[in-house]
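Q: I have 140 residues here and want to know how they pack in 3D. Can you give me a structure?
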Amino acid sequence: MQTTYRPTAAFVGASWAALLIGMAAYLIGLWNAQMQLNEKGYYLTLLLYGLFSAISLQKTVRDRSENVPVTGMYSSLCWFSLVAAILLLTIGLWNATLELSEKGFYAMSFALALFAVIAVQKNVRDLQAAGPAPEGKLSD
């Protein structure tokens, strides 16, 4: 049996902050972008698809490490989805008529959001596994 440690409040807060900052930066950039609505929809869909596939992959990897049955097909689909989202963003940005700095902005905010959503998912799962916080203790 594996011992689950409660993540600190600081790490949980930093993870949520990174996720919100990454998503907000990406979405604000899209809102202000001088591109057609269908292009904005493409990039929005990639963000949502990337976040969902990253969460699914994190859960799959963790399930396997905890000996929770996960089919090889589902695990492969999670990997394929995350790689596809990253490749589609890369291809889209490569071919976009954006300044190089704008392309970098989208790539970095996308990467920050993907990393942060994995950390948030891990924290949610660790907090659930650790159970309620001890009385009178705000953080570990």
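Q: Anything worth noting?
A: The helical segments are 9-32, 37-65, 72-95, 100-130. Residues 10-130 form one domain.
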